[in-house]
Input
Amino acid sequence: MASVLKVDQLQGVSNANNVIVPGGIIQVVEQKLSGRTVISVTGSYGTTWASGLKCSITPKSTNPTYYVVCQLQYTTTNFNAGYILFDNTNAQYVLYNDQSTDAWGSTTGRKYLSSGGIGSGGFNNNGSGADNFGNSSRTASGLYTPPNNNTLEIEVYMGSLNSTGSIIIGGNESNLNYAYDSYSHCSLTIMEIAG
Output
């Protein structure tokens, strides 16, 4: 006959210890974008620009694995753009297609995108201004195992793909406080999975 152990709560032997169940989520951190951010992309396209939307987590486990979720709504002033999640701590890209061929900083090669682009003309390709009130929602999510267990910082970088101008995050190009200029929820979440 198998034994059954029933408990209401598990605790470590001291306040400094944690009971960790392998495969379970042991902590969650989130950063939300407040308001609307406009990034001015200058120089050559094929570059990335820090958005300021970033999230840090200090691991509780020795060999951490993270589940990362980024939900971003953005548009541009008539050019194609996407975003990349970048591990600022270890200087490496996060959540991109392994068939990508080139890092950012040139106009050639398939870039390490975490999101899809919004289309070559953004939302403003009819030239009348009627599309200034739209934006595109892009979500990237997946597992990430960093090379060490240092405190990790992941940041959203916006990438221009075929031209330059402004990238608007969390809102529309128009910003006149009308109903169609409403701001959009954007967030970056990191969950640690116990190993």
